[in-house]
Request: fold
Amino acid sequence: RIALQKLLSRHFLNRFAAHFRQISTSRGDTAMSKFSRLLQPLDLGHTTLRNRVVMGSMHTGLEEPAWGQGLRAMGEFFAERARGGVGLMVTGGISPNRAGWVYPFAAKLTTKAEVELHRDVTAPVHAAGGKIAMQILHAGRYAYHPLGVAPSNVKAPIGWFTPRALSTEEVYDTVEDYARAATLAREAGYDGVEIMGSEGYLINQFIVERTNKRTDEWGGSYENRMRFPTEIVRRVRQAVGDDFIIMYRLSMLDLVEGGSVWPEIVQLAKAVEGAGADIINTGIGWHEARIPTIATCVPRGGFAWVTKKLKGEVGIPLCTTNRINDPTVAEQILNDDCADMISMARPFLADPYFVKKAMEGRELDINTCIGCNQACLDHTFKGKRASCLVNPLACYESEFRITPIAGPSDKRRIAVIGAGPAGLAASTTAAERGHDVVLFEASGEIGGQFNMAKTIPGKEEFYETLRYFNRRIEQTGVDLRLNTRADVATMKSEAFDAVILATGVEPRTLRDSLPGAADSPIFLSYVDVLAKNAPVGKNVVVIGAGGIGFDVCERLVHNEEHPASSVDVDTFLKEWGVDGSNEGRGGLAPNGAEELEPARQITLLQRKSGKLGAGLGKTTGWIHRQQLKKKGVNMMGGVKYLSVEPDGLRIEVKGEERTLKCDTIVVCAGQSPKRELEKPLAEAGFDVFKIGGAEKAAELDAKRAIDQGTRLAAQIEHATTGQVFNAPVGLTERLMEGAEKLLKVA
Reply:
């Protein structure tokens, strides 16, 4: 862990300063030497993987057959990653029966007809030189439908329904369902299966007493509780033969009260090996755990030490996972003998050619996963097709391609005004296609709002996106003009055919509307704090509890004496109450999370009553709220702002007036789109397009900004002035939203 820790420290403190130059490792043989462990083939006896890289399972929304399209989109998604050099890919979870559906009509494999659909996945992968395993996942009590079953009728804290307890006979039947699903997977052309035994799904629910209250042969003693996974692996091996990959996802760190203890984990690992597994993959945390496991606040490779603890206990390869998004970090983990293989999932949404670029010595060309969850997990839990904030082409490979312009008559001279995320995506995509692109930026650097985001503790990965776009500007030939304000005269003199306004937003300061604010020296905007590094006192009031308000609080509770845990594994484990020795039950520290002194005392306010940060990410909002609570941030809703006083902010809450004493007030009360050029440009006869914050500033949304910029640039020569292109909204997303609203009402 110490070696990895040093690497992470070097990475975040030194590499970011040198991100904008390409390392001189352009030869493939040099890269093969640099990443020799990562790129080394792995002989499993009956088959050989071309390298040690696993594309881990994640649900994308492509697993359910599309009307008239079957699973062809899923096949193209994986084929693209196979072309990118991945050693072994694992699909999203496929249920072995209807009761195991994650939600109604979710993916399952139980019939010959479904086998035919899955051949549209395996055939293109094999044609691209790849190998692919199908994950068999039974949701158990995590099912979002009323037919869910579990070892016992214990409702999940994140579930919608109380599951029905399986009868003894039904448990045996479920074991056979796993074997049948594996057999059908082989018939469909898969190279193997991964049996999902972690993250709190059905198999995990059998293993621990907190969810298994049974008194038959499937409950009681640990030997009885572990019988379910062991029998599944044994029956799957019997069903598929010896020349088929079986990977078992073992929960090595449950992170919940009453979870497994380490000797039990070792005992199960040995039993799974004995039952016929070829590989043991690492599972970290149940979905209901209140400890982050994959969000960007988790240090890179932050759980590799868990897998290392199992080394030497079994004789089959071990695969480690979670927050590994860089080939250098992956190589170090293997060199530290933490594991034999590296599993990465979201990094292959961000860049399908991650492995190929590493092989060719082009690691600085990798579009790095920033761990934000905004377009992947957040989409999945909304029933929406997954994608990627930094790569909106992900999961749209069969319908959204970046292709060269048809010919000289389609070539356009395009001005992009603003080098924030939207402008960067639009300019580089348009230039890549063959258009003549000039990118105007009034400041001295690219990035826009990302330049503020990257300063937030836990968002250090945003530096990577800026490094990537700097490379893209160089490679695509965009004419970047920093410190240059665009105007109508310039557009005319340079004869642009189209102008893309990516001018971003203007923060609402409240100086003109809040009495006493106009001349107050203690009254600041979030831009003053995040971009201009304005001095901030020790007692702070933050107005506005959206994403920016939370970011400002996170920035202000840290300083040099109170560093962020996102770049230090040991600090992270202490802050979140994880037992770094993994000896305690569930991997939880016996004394809980360590109390950390904040750099400042902060009060966070919002006008609306109810939960603060309600609009934060579906899978990360709870993390941001918990982080601020740990730092003692006082959160208040239903607040009316009355006036700024010399010694603080006068407010009204529930009809009572009071003054919050403070020495700094920071306003994060929304923003307005900057569109002052739109009308004069249109009047001058230009085709004008708005993207990102300039199009909609209700909430800063880099995901929408990059998506809009990319989609517009992909078809700008055929677009009509003012047209806006957004990702489509699917039927499943609408149904999930409606169901959630109905359940809340009920």
User: Anything to note?
Assistant: Residues 6-27 have pLDDT under 50 and may be disordered.
